[in-house]
Amino acid sequence: MNTAAWASLRLLGWVVVALMIAFLGGYIAGKRFGRSRGQMEGEAFAPLDLRRMALTSGVCPICGTTSALEPACEEEEEDGN
Amino acid sequence: MFGVTFDVWWQLSVIKEEVAILITGVVIKLMDDWLDKDRDLCSGKKTLAARLNGGLLPYTLVLLALAMAMAPGLSLSLFLGTYVTGMMGEPGRRLPTGLGSGPESILVLLLGVIGSGWWEQISSLLLMVFIQAADDLLDAGVDMNAAAGRVNLALRWGRAEAGLVAAICLLASFLLDWRKTLAVAFCAPAVLGLLGIWERENHGVGPDSEPLRGDG
Fold this sequence. Notes:
The structure holds 2 protein chains of 2 kinds. Helix content of chain A is about 80%, strand content about 0%. Chain A is mainly α. The longest helix of chain A is centred in the middle third of the chain and has 55 residues, at about 5-55. The radius of gyration of chain A is 28 Å and the shape is rod-shaped. The mean pLDDT of chain A is about 85. Chain B contains 10 helices and no strands. Mean pLDDT of chain B is about 85; it is low at about 205-215. The interface between A and B is medium-sized, with 15 and 14 residues.
């Protein structure tokens, strides 16, 4: 392999290294951003989901207390009939 | 190949460098095993370092002196590269010198640059980071289950990140010094394999212990 070909191959290699470093930086930033955003969305959604579970089953998903009222879904079914 | 003439002296210097890399590899492995000695003994492993115990220091120094006599810049840069890489897993730790691991790493790296030159030291550091990250990727499963709390870059950074860092370091070190990269890529598994075989044959592994590192 002549010197010019070797030099261009080396240059190509350094370009690949630079692209891989950019990819690694993007991957780390994306992972960090995605994690914090997922955390925020989870925190916002959790109370609504817990409330839905409590209303549909009539049982508190946190402490297990049973409501004196009938579950909401059964009321809806009765209304529907 | 690549404008280099294959004469006898060149071949001899290549063999000398290969042997120096192999000896430095043994020194690095012994040092690593010595630092992990107590942890390994707790998990039932008795490594060569634990077996040599007090005799380890003189033997290691003799081996390092031999490697330094054969290829001074190469051996020094590889040894100091390992020293810096070893401290990467514990960034905030205060070391016996009184310095934090970060400043001490920079100091050691500077000494390496003065002793062996920029390219030699940087390519050796990249190679050692590659070996550390690749080894930690292979050991990630074992280290995740181990209660000993071994520092593992693949678990600390994430497997994808460690894999990418390993690939980047391998390619960059190959571009800086392809001959050294190939030699180290050949010597590292050879050292791990040979010491692994020695430990197994000398009943260094307890019945309930994990398989030795580098056994495949």
